[in-house]
Write a structure and sequence with these properties.
The chain is of the alpha/beta class. It contains 13 helices and 21 strands. The structure holds arabino-flavin-adenine dinucleotide and P-hydroxybenzoic acid.
Length: about 400
C-alpha cells in the first residue's frame, strides 16, 4: 500500500517523537516508522538529566506539564575524590541555570501518549525499512508490516533511528566518521530506594574506578559503577554492586546509601562518535543516528533535543516561509554544538574514570586536576556552564 506524508521519521525514540510533535504543532504532517514495539521502546532505561533547553522544548511541544510537575530541579552537582565530597554550585556559577532529573523513559512516555491522543501515525514493528530517492525531490521509504510491503512517499526523511539504525547505514559511503571507544563500560542499577543525595548528582573518582549517584524520583534511584568491558551483568549480584559503590564514594555518603533489590541492571559500553555531515539531499540525521557521547556529561539525550530543535525549525521555515536557509545550514549548525558537547563529555570521562594505563601517576594527576577544579572559580564555572548546556 502507498501512502503520503510531508516528513517521514525513522525511529520512535526521543528524537523521532519530539520531532513529530513539533512538526504536528506547526501543521506539518509526519509519520513515524519504528522497528520495535512501543513497550520495547519504553522498556529501555537510559538518560536521566535534562538541560533547560530540553525542558523548554518539551513545553514548546506541548508535553512539558509532567516534567514541570515531577522533574527534580538540581542547582548543584557533587564531585567525590580522595575520600571527600565537593559541591559545584551550578546555579550560582551560571547566573541561575539548572538541570532537571527526569528519566528518558518518562519523557518518551509523555511524547508517545501525546502522539496517540492526537491520532498521529506511528507504525510500530515496521520491518526492513529502506530509504530511496532522497537525492532527488521525491523520497520514498519502504517497509514491511504484517507481511505486506508498504511505500511511504514524502518530501523529507528524518533519520532518528539511533546508532544502529538504517539511516546512517544507507549513506555510509558519503560520511566521515570520528570515533573513540573507551576501555570500560558502565554497570547501571535502577532501584526503588530514596536517592542518597536528592538534590545533586554525585560523580565519583576513585582508584577503584568511576561511580555515579543519580535518581528518577525521590523514591527511585539510578546508580552506576565503571566496570571492565568484558564483565557480564550476571557477574554482578546486587550485594556486590552496593558494596562496590560504597567503596568508591566518601565514607559519609557510603553510610547514607539506602540499598534494595535492583529492578533493572545493565552494562552499557562508552564511545564518542560523530558522523559528518548530517544532511544528504532530503535525508537528515538527528540524535544518536549522527552522534554518541559517553554518558558522563549527561549530553546524549540533550544533544538529540537540540538537533530536533534545529531540524523542526528548518522544516517549519521551508513549509511556512518557503525558505531553505535552515535546511541548508542544519548540518554545520548542529555539528558546532555537537563537537563542543563531545569535547566536554570526553574531558569529564577522561577526568573521572580509571584507565588501564593511568594507575599511580595518572590517578594523582586526576586528583590534582579535581583539586584545582573545585578550588578555582574559573575552572568550576567552565564545568558548570558546559554541564547546564552551552547557549544555542
Ligand atoms: P534512540 O536510540 O533512543 O532511538 C532510536 C529509535 O530508532 C529506537 O526506538 C530504535 O528501535 C529505532 N530504530 C533503529 N533502527 C531502526 C530501523 N531500521 N527502522 C525503524 N526504527 C529503527 N544519554 C544521556 O544523556 N544520559 C545517559 O545516562 C544515557 N545513558 C544511555 C545508556 C544506553 C545503554 C544507551 C544506548 C544510550 C544512553 N544515553 C544516555 C543516550 C541516549 O539517551 C540517547 O542519547 C537517546 O536515546 C537518543 O535518542 P534517539 O536519537 O531518539 O535514539
Ligand atoms: C542518569 O541519571 O542516568 C545519569 C545522570 C547523569 C549522567 C549520566 C546518567 O551524567
Amino acid at each position: 500500500m502507498t501512502t503520503r506524508t510531508q516528513v517521514a521519521i525513522i525511529g520512535a525514540g526521543p528524537s523521532g517523537l519530539l520531532l513529530g510533535q513539533l512538526l504536528h504543532k506547526a501543521g506539518i504532517s509526519n509519520v513515524i516508522l519504528e522497528r520495535q514495539s512501543g513497550d520495547y521502546v519504553l522498556g529501555r532505561i537510559r538518560a536521566g538529566i535534562l538541560e533547560q533547553v530540553t525542558v523548554d522544548l518539551l513545553k514548546e511541544a506541548g508535553v512539558g506539564e509532567r516534567v514541570g510537575r515531577e522533574g527534580i530541579v538540581h542547582h548543584s552537582i557533587e564531585l567525590v575524590f580522595a575520600g571527600a565530597r565537593h559541591p559545584i554550585d551550578v546555579h550560582g556559577l551560571t547566573g541561575g541555570k539548572v538541570v532537571t532529573a527526569y528519566g528518558q523513559t518518562e519523557l518518551t512516555r509523555d511524547l508517545m501518549e501525546a502522539r496517540q491522543a492526537q491520532g498521529l501515525t506511528t507504525v510500530y514493528e515496521a520491518a526492513n525499512v529502506s530509504l530511496h530517492g532522497f537525492d532527488g525531490d521525491q523520497p520514498v521509504v519502504r517497509y514491511q508490516k504484517d507481511g505486506a510491503t508498504h511505500e511511504l512517499q514524502c518530501d523529507f526523511i528524518a533519520g532518528c533511528d539511533g546508532f544502529h539504525g538504517v539511516s546512517r547505514a544507507t549513506v555510509k559511503d558519503s560520511i566521515s566518521e570520528f570515533e573513540r571507544v573507551y576501555p570500560f563500560g558502565w554497570l547501571g542499577v535502577l532501584a526503588d530506594v530514596p536517592p542518597v543525595s536528592p538534590h545533586a548528582i554525585v560523580y565519583g573518582n576513585s582508584d577503584r574506578g568511576f561511580s555515579l549517584c543519580s535518581m528518577r524520583s525521590l523514591s527511585r534511584s539510578r546508580y552506576y559503577v565503571q566496570c571492565p568491558l568484558d564483565d557480564k551483568v550476571e557477574d554482578w549480584s546486587d550485594q556486590r554492586f552496593w558494596d562496590e559503590l560504597r567503596r568508591r564514594v566518601d565514607p559519609e555518603l557510603a553510610d547514607k546509601i539506602v540499598t534494595g533489590p535492583s529492578i533493572e541492571k545493565s552494562i552499557a559500553p562508552l564511545r564518542s562518535f560523530v558522523a559528518e555531515p548530517m544532511r544528504f539531499g532530503r535525508l537528515f540525521l538527528a540524535g544518536d543516528a549522527a552522534h554518541i557521547v559517553p554518558p558522563t556529561g549527561a549530553k546524549g539525550l540533550n544533544l538529540a533535543a537540540t538537533d530536533v530543535k534545529y531540524l523542526s525549525g528548518a522544516f517549519i521555515e521551508y513549509y511556512l516561509e518557503h525558505s531553505a536557509a535552515g535546511i541548508d545550514t542544519y548540518s554545520q549548525r548542529c555539528l558546532r554544538r555537537i563537537w563542543k558537547a563531545e569535547r566536554f563529555s570526553w574531558w569529564l570521562t577522561s577526568l573521572m574514570h580509571r584507565f588501564p594505563d593511568t594507575a599511580g601517576f595518572g590517578q594523582r594527576i586526576q586528583e590534582a586536576e579535581l583539586d584545582y577544579l573545585v578550588n578555582s572559580k574559573a575552572a568550576s564555572t567552565s564545568l558548570a556552564e558546559n554541564y547546564v548546556g552551552l547557549p544555542l
